[in-house]
Amino acid sequence: MQRYSGFGLVKHALRHHEDWQRQWRNPTPKPRYDVIIVGGGGHGLATAYYLAKEHGITNVAVVEKGWLGGGNTARNTTIVRSNYLWDESAALYEHAMKHWEGLSQELNYNVMFSQRGVLNLGHTLQDMRDIQRRVNANRLNGIDGEVLDAEGVQSLVPIMDCSKRARYPVMGASWQPRAGVARHDAVAWGYARAADALGVDLLQNTEVTGFKIRDGQIQGVHTNRGDIEAKTVGCVTAGNSSVLARMAGFNLPLESHPLQALVSEPLKPVLDTVVMSNHVHGYISQSDKGDLVIGAGIDGYNGYGQRGSYPTVEHTLQAIVEMFPIFSRVRMNRQWGGIVDTCPDACPILSKTKVKGLYFNCGWGTGGFKATPGSGHVFAASLAKGEMHPIAAPFSIDRFHSGALIDEHGAAGVAH
Amino acid sequence: MFHIYCPYCEELREEEEFHPKGEAHIARPEEPEACSDEEWGDYLFFRDNPRGIHHEMWLHAVGCRKFFNITRNTVSYEILETYKMGEQPTVGAEHLAREEKTASVQAAEGGQQTVGASDAALASVKGAQA
Q1: How far is C-alpha A152 from the geometric centre of its chain's CA atoms?
Q2: Is A362:A71 a contact under the CB 8 Å cutoff?
Q3: Most buried residue, A203, A407, B37, B85, by CB count within 10 Å?
C-alpha cells in the first residue's frame, strides 16, 4: 500500500499527480473464503479490516451489490457522538468514539474527524430532566457531558434564536465536547484501502441472491457472479437486512424506513458545532465545504425507495428556520434518502442467528454512522471467535424474546 | 406525496391527513397468557418488512379517524388498493410463513417479490373493495 503523507503529496504534485496508485484492487471472486461479509458499507468494510488486522483472518471477501460505501454510508449526516443513556449502548458507542479518535492515523487516511461538539437541545421541562439524567449517566460511564442553560447554548451558538420569543424556546442542552462530525465517504474508503492492503477481496457489483445452508450450517452464498463458499458469513446490509434474512428463512424485528437529509448551497463559516433538537425535530451542522447539512426524520411507512417525502422535509425545515432565523433564505442544493432498518427498541442487532455460522449486524436505524469503527471492531471479534464480543452480547436478537430490551427511544437524545 | 383513497370517506385525500400504523393482518394471540416467550416476542416485534408488495394499516387521522388497510409496493411506493378493516386484500404479499410451506429453506433463492402488480389492482384504488 502506498502510504499517504504531506511529503508524498508534494512529490506527486511535482509529477502532475499522474502516478497515484489505485486505492484497492478489483479482484475476481475466489471459490472459497474463510469469512464472507455481505455489504460493503462502512460497517462491513470496518468488520473486514479488523478481521484481517486484529485476528489475522485475511482470506475474507466483502460482497457488495453496488459500489463501496454507496448506501447509508454515503447518505448520513456524519454526526459522531456517544452520549447514550443505557450502559450497554454507552459502552458500544463509546468504544466507537475511542476508535474515531485515532482513526485517521490508524488507517493512514484522513477521515476528517472533527471534534466540534454536539448540542442536544431541550425545549421543555421534561426535556431538561431527561438531559440531566442522561448526562449524569454518561459521566458515570466515563463519557464527557455537560448540562447547559439557555445562556450557555447562546454563547456557543450566537446565531441561534434562544430567546423566549421562539415557538418552542430553548431551555438548555446537553453538550458533548468530544462529539463531532467525520467525512463519511472517507471512512468507507479508508477502511476499504486498509482492508485491501491486508489481503481482503472487495467484490463490487456482486449481489447475494441466496444462502447455501446445509443441516443448519451456513455453507456460502449464491451471487450473480457464481457461488462463493464460506463457513462464516456476516450480513451487514442495513435497510436490506430483512430481505437477506428472508433468504435464510427467518424474520427480523426490523422495519425499513426512508430517512432523508439535505444540504444547502455553500456558505461562509457560520456554525462551528452540531445542533440537534429532538423536540422540534431537526439537526444541523456545517461541513468544511460550507454547506449546511440537515437531517430530517424518518417517513412513518415502510419503504425501500431511496427518497423521502415532502411533508417530512418541510416539517424539518420549519424547525431549522425556527431555531435559526438567519437561515430562512438559504437555498437548498440537494436532498436524498437512505433506507434505515429501525428496531423496536432503537438499538442495533449484533447477533448469531438460528443458522450456524450466519451472523447479522443490523438494526442501527437512524444512527449507525457514528458507530462504524466500534461496530466493525466488536463484530469482527465475534466472527473470529464464534462467540459474541462482550460489548456486542447484549445486542443479541434473543432480547426480543427474553424481554431484555435496551430502550434508547428518546433516551439518547436521538432524533426519531 | 401520496394520494390515498379512504375506503370509509370514499375520497382521495392527501398523505398528510393519514398516519401509517405498521403491518396489517397481525392477529393478537387469543390467549396471550398461553403464549411461549417465542410466540409473544414474534407477535410483538417480528415483521415481514418485504421489499415489494406489503399490506399495512393506516389511520385517517384528521379525516374520519378510522383505521383501514393499504396494499402498497415498498419500492415504487405505488398504492395498489385500499380496503376496510376486516376485509382481505385482492393483491397478495408473500409472507414468510407461506413461503416456508412451499420452498425449502436450503433452496431459498432470494426474497424477491414477484407478485404481479396488476392494472386490476390499481383500479381497485378507485374503490372496488370499498
Answers
A1: 29
A2: no
A3: A203
